[in-house]
Every structure is written in C-alpha cells, then in structure tokens.
Fold this protein.
Amino acid sequence: MSERNINQLNFRVMNTSEEIAEARKLLQENGYQVANLWSISDVQSKFNCNDAEALNVLESALVNDATMEQIWFAIDFHAYEYGFERIEEED
C-alpha cells in the first residue's frame, strides 16, 4: 500500500448524517455492501493517531492477505450454505 496524505484525497468530507445516509443508499443501490463500514473513528477510538494515520491503518488492515482470504472464505461458505452453485472458471 502506498502512503498518501489524507489531504491529497479527492473528496469532500460529509458533515451530516443525512449526507452519509444518502451516500450509503447510493452505494447500496449500486450493489455495494454498506451494512458494515469502517471509519477512521474506529481506529482513533483505540489508538492515538491523526486522520491520515488512522486511514492508513484501515487501508492496511482491510487489504492485507489474511483479511482478504477470510472474506473470500466466508463468501464461499455462506454462498454454499444458501445452496448457490459455483460458476466454473474458464481457462
């Protein structure tokens, strides 16, 4: 993961719960899972760090190999539990 300054990110901070709810609704309507989102405040509730540092921790935690492997395992597990048939991959 590359280090980046939170101030260099191209986004506007949403300061009302209504704006955040609208953003979540838009993502959900486009097929994204939004029931469990992580925020820099989650990191800052446990560690003394600034916004940029907290964002780096989140990004590292959510894209590391162990996390990704567990997510794919859980997706497979629950898809099979629901009785879905796996799509055969083409070579």
Notes: The two ends are 29 Å apart (CA to CA).
